[in-house]
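REQUEST FORM: STRUCTURE PREDICTION
Request ID: SP-0412
Submitted by: Lab K.M.
Chain count: 1
Length (residues): 411
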Amino acid sequence: MSEHTHLQLACGIELAVLHLPQRRAEALDIRVLAGLADEPADRLGLARLVEQTLDKGTQQHDGRGLSDAFDEIGAMTSSWSGREMTGFSGLVLPEFFPRCVELHAEFLRTPTFPADACDVAVELGRQELLTLNDDAQGLCDKFINRQALGPILGRHAAGERETLDAVTRDDLVNFWQKHYGAGRMIVSAAGPLEPQAVAECIERAFAGFGPATQSNRDPRPIEFDAVATHHDKPTEQEQIAIALRGVPVNHDDRPAERLLLGVLGGGMSARLFTEVREKQGLAYWVGAWSENPRGSGLLMVGAATTPQRCQQTYATLLRELERVATDVTDEEVSRALAGFLVRAAVRGDQTRTRCSEQSDDIIHFGRPVPMEEKLDRLRAVTVEQVRDFAARYIAQAPRSVVTLGPEPLTA
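STATUS: Completed
RESULT:
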């Protein structure tokens, strides 16, 4: 049986340890509570540039040397930049876990930001923006996020060309100095770990790394704009994105929302796939999902169709969103629940995934949440609760809509 340990360390780090005694590997997940929302408005893209250059040189190693040090212990590492935080993770054999922590602490605490690595990161950012301009779905996602989340939370990780061109090495150094420190860190570990040993390891590695006082924990409000916007682009497909207000991850209605999303977009038997793609052949891709910054949430629906069928596709999406409040069935809810249970079982076999989910729990709930508790909340949802949620949040709710392609919507 898994067991969570939740600690506040003297250095300022909030630590959660998930004891999984039968696993053969140990996972580390570090969240720094600094992301796109913390960037200066004239330096968009800066958070990702910092994330991508932290490990390109430290006071102990150059970039190649640090990479070799991780390879010597067989570590699988990754990093990412998000709206409100930046993440770093590693997966190693148990005997190498302390070394994995040490190496992460090394590049987080003592980066040197080599000038050539900074220049390369900026150039790669420019190339990413060029690639994005040819990615219709990616562009549509960028526009709907900005419109539905607002100009702060809706920022794109790649920034903008004019802001990237303005970034200097000093900007990267200043962002790291201002926003990185133990008081802004959540650390999660999972595997055959002894919690007290993990706590001592993390404390040794990060003691004295900035102020120990916790900061940057308050959620930022979204700035939802209920408008319809068209972005003209000469493509052969038309992208449609619809956003509606949802609920935070820790809200009492969240289990009903999750099952509703499963009914709408949870597989080949889901309503949107069946009604939009299979019955009418309107779209080659259609889906439903949620976006959940701390303290808020959005329900998202998207489709890719042809310009000639854009209006019909949009009308079908609206029809399905409106009628689900009255005719969702027990069978559909049960099928959605079964999908969640299967995915939870599969994810439960992945130590790295369990570790990451534990970090998410700390961010959204303020504590680790046992898997069975989450699943019990889903199992307790009735079809009436799903209908009630749909009636209150979807059927007649304000919508933020973006289309991208050669044809605007006519209504």
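NOTES: The chain has a mean pLDDT of 95.
Reviewed by: T.R.
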